[in-house]
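RECORD TYPE: inverse folding
INPUT: structure tokens
STRUCTURE:
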């Protein structure tokens, strides 16, 4: 009997070691190839809406909108291609990521990755067609196994202008300016990304404003042993409950660009009750020129840790909407940009069913130089308890008309004089 127990024990140990030596690369390759054939080639978009927030005919236009899609499963992000028709006078324009909304379609789960990202943007001009702003958006909400369906909604603000009236140009527009890093758990919960732009044709005298384009968070792989076969795996995808997710883009003003290399900082938080190693990516674009101004506001990040002693245990898993106003902006045109946001569970880390924050219903009044917008937010598990906290900051991109209006060239009229014979 003792020999039988010894053999059985040795067999179990051998199985565990075999499982621990399994390569994550091979597993991922198998999972990806098995899932690729299940994806629809033409994903269905829905809940699409767009409207003109403000227009000064012949000079400037600002539009806002949102669009949603669903992803059945898999490690690939949900992708949407969005197009905005622009007036014929627009020859420059771009888009701002002004919010996101992610939710699992069936119950709640732990989280491995979260993403909302405008990966490409381009103003298409030329030919007989009117200008068109085209941009691609990627979103993701996944757990360890990538096997849960989710919905992704993006909220955006697009704007276009006539460069004869507004001295501004966009840099890093097509691919964005992408910065990434691995935040080791020993470095603490707040990750800091330093971004630098050294390409393009910005002048040293140009004022520069950073346009938020996206974020991506993902827990790093780790060694895990669980009740499964094989029981242990090296470099296994990891997921955890969520306590806090936050983003803050720091820019104190549209300062001149003396060395031709704009530099800015983004800080983020992605954590459960503890601090874990994770990957961060942030994307941005730039706008610079003599007409570019900025009303800056930034959000200082405060990590949440451990279980709170006092919390509201009532059900509160509903969308909260508030109205905000900014007065006396010294700009001819104003574009709000969601440059800081913080979502966190009030009491403890939890599973996630839905998470999102976005601005909408934007109104700019050029007579009073006032800007109004609404902010909506949500963070909940399957039953909406405990409650959540939400904070945000909006920086305002200002554009002023050039002091010297464009010269309108007029051709001489074609006058024909017929002399009458005497």
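DESIGNED SEQUENCE:
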């Amino acid at each position: 009997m003792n020999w039988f127990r010894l053999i059985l024990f040795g067999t179990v140990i051998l199985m565990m070691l075999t499982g621990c030596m399994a390569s994550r690369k091979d597993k991922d390759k198998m999972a990806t190839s098995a899932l690729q054939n299940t994806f629809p080639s033409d994903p269905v978009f829905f809940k699409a809406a767009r409207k003109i927030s403000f227009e000064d005919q012949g000079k400037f236009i600002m539009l806002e909108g949102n669009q949603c899609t669903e992803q059945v499963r898999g490690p690939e992000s949900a992708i949407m291609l969005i197009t905005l028709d622009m007036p014929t006078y627009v020859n420059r324009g771009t888009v701002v990521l002004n919010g996101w909304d992610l939710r699992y379609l069936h119950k709640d789960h732990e989280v491995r990755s979260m993403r909302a990202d405008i990966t490409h943007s381009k103003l298409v001009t030329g030919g007989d067609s009117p200008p068109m702003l085209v941009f691609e958006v990627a979103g993701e909400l996944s757990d360890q196994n990538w096997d849960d369906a989710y919905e992704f909604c993006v909220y955006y603000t697009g704007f276009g202008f006539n460069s004869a009236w507004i001295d501004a140009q966009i840099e890093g527009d097509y691919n964005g300016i992408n910065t990434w890093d691995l935040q080791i758990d020993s470095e603490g919960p707040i990750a800091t990304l330093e971004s630098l732009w050294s390409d393009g044709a910005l002048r040293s005298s140009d004022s520069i404003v950073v346009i938020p384009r996206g974020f991506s968070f993902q827990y790093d792989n780790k060694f895990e042993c669980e009740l499964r076969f094989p029981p242990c795996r090296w470099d296994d995808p990891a997921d955890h409950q969520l306590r806090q997710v936050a983003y803050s883009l720091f820019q104190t003003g549209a300062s001149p660009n003396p060395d031709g290399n704009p530099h800015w900082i983004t800080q983020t938080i992605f954590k459960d009750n503890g601090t874990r190693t994770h990957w961060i990516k942030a994307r941005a674009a730039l706008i610079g020129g003599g007409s570019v101004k900025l009303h800056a506001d930034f959000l200082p990040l405060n990590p949440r840790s451990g279980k709170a002693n006092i919390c509201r245990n009532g059900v509160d898993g509903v969308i909260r909407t508030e109205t905000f106003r900014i007065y006396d902006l010294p700009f001819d045109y104003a574009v709000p940009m969601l440059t800081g946001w913080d979502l966190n569970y009030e009491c403890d880390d939890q599973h996630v069913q839905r998470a999102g924050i976005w601005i909408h219903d934007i109104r700019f009044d050029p007579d009073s130089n006032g800007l109004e917008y609404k902010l909506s937010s949500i963070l909940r598990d399957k039953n909406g308890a405990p409650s959540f906290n939400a904070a945000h900051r909006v920086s305002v991109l200002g554009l002023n008309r050039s002091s010297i209006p464009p010269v309108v060239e007029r051709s001489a009229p074609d006058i024909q004089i017929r002399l009458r014979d005497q």
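NOTES: Helices lie at 2-20, 24-36.
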